Amino acid sequence: MTMADVTTTIRSHWPEYLMEAAGLGLFMISACVFTALLEHPMSPAHQAVENGTLRRVLIGVAMGLTAVGLICSPWGKRSGAHLNPSVTLAFLSLGKVTRIDALFYILAQFCGGILGVAVANLLIGEPLRHSAVDYAVTTPGSDGAVIALVAELAISAILMSVVLAVSNSPRLSRFTPLLAGGLVAIYISIEAPVSGMSMNPARSLGSAVSADEWTALWIYFVGPPLGMLLAAQLYRLTHGQSRVFCAKFHHHNSARCIFRCNFGALTRRD
């Protein structure tokens, strides 16, 4: 790709880059709001729900619905709603995203994560800074960093495996947003005590920057990308690269697609 091609791509695709940044920013604002609402000790919601596990389930449901809403939003339908460098890298490895688009998607996602928490800090203030909330940071549980790393790798691999299996199925592709959001809800409800449940280096960095909390941040830069890349390559080996039709989470819409897309071939299988 020549420099002229790069410039043309950036000029054409910058709206999708901004949509990715805004999407993860909104996800982080939602994470901060619901974490403060349910975990700050002076919050009426926290006082009404005394059981910590139930509060975590409620946060999981809220974030799962947030993910579904973002994927199904006009911005999500157009950008593909990766909202996660690990997802973008997985689709890059499958040949569905160009290197220049992958680069700017990842930069946008990191910027969106950082700015989203910063905006949440302005909106929420002291409750977000309270030690019980701590900017919704992701840190390893009591079992330590190694277990957290393995857990992050595993949940990321499962999510990408499900997304690839469902999004490339003629009958099931329209349900990809629901299944992705459902896994987010389940993971937060069950897995969060082990690793903090990130699956997303941009999400973890966004909280870490505002909180100035860097404990084992490397886990979230290693586990999620590695897990999703492994899942992508396993899918390639078992199904073939031609069975990956696009890199969007939601493709049953009329929004333009900037990826190496062959979704029309999938719909003709219906």
Which features characterize this protein?
mainly alpha, Glycerol uptake facilitator protein, 13 helices
Would you give an account of this structure?
There is one protein chain. The chain is mostly helical and 270 residues long. The chain has a single domain, classed as Up-down Bundle (Glycerol uptake facilitator protein). It has helices at residues 3-39, 44-48, 52-72, 74-79, 85-93, 99-124, 126-129, 145-167, 176-190, 192-195, 201-211, 218-239, 263-267. The protein is globular.
Short description:
The protein has 270 residues and is mainly α.
SSE arrangement:
Layout: H1 3-39, H2 44-48, H3 52-72, H4 74-79, H5 85-93, H6 99-124, H7 126-129, H8 145-167, H9 176-190, H10 192-195, H11 201-211, H12 218-239, H13 263-267
Helix pairs in contact: 1-3, 1-6, 3-9, 5-6, 5-12, 6-11, 8-9, 8-12
For CATH, the homologous superfamily is named as: Glycerol uptake facilitator protein
Total discrete domains: 1
Structural class: mainly alpha
What is the N-to-C order of secondary-structure elements (H for helix, E for strand)?
Answer: HHHHHHHHHHHHH
Strand content: under 5%
Low-pLDDT stretches are none
- The CATH architecture classification is Up-down Bundle
Tally of DSSP helical segments: 13
How would you characterize the largest beta sheet? none
CATH third-level topology = Glycerol uptake facilitator protein
Overall shape: it is: globular
Classify the helix fraction into a percent range: 55-70%
